[in-house]
Every structure is written in structure tokens, then in C-alpha cells.
Amino acid sequence: MADEIRAEMVANVWKVVSTAGAEVEEGDTLVILESMKMEIPVLAESDGVVAQLAVNEGDVVQEGDLIAVIE
Question: In this prediction, what percent of the chain has a pLDDT beyond 90?
Fold first, then answer.
């Protein structure tokens, strides 16, 4: 079953750490968001392979926007 990782707040995508096709473990950092001068890591919620990264560095995400899909 695919695990969708979604933004929990409005933020800028500061850095994309992972890539599509990369194997990740629960707790690995996928991207780092920036909001109000704070860096917020977005973590993999399960082990698997990054099937899709839906953001690029410099993008602005809204609450609920898709960031990544892990299969």
C-alpha cells in the first residue's frame, strides 16, 4: 500500500534530500521545509521506495499538499 506524505503547514521547500526511486527507512528525511525561519524535516513514515516526489526546491506548499509517495 502506498504511503502519501503531505504538508502539515504552509511552507517553502528549502531542500529536497531524497530522490524518486530511492530506498528509505522510517524516519529518513525526504525534504526540508522552511517556515517562519525554522527548518522542518519531512520524514518517511514507513520503509519503502520513494515512488514520487511531488515538490522541488523553492516550491511553496500549502497544508495538505502532496510531498511524496512511498511504496
Answer: 97
> Is the pTM above the cut of 0.85?
yes
The dihedral formed by the CA atoms of 21, 26, 31 and 37, expressed in degrees to the nearest 10: 180
Taking the C-alpha atoms of residue 18 and residue 31, their distance in angstroms, rounded to an integer, is: 7
The pLDDT of residue 1 is 72
Q: Nearest Cα to 67, choosing from 49, 56, 22, 48?
A: 56
Q: What phi and psi values does residue 40 have, to the nearest 5 degrees?
A: -120, 110
For 27, the grid coordinates are 524516519
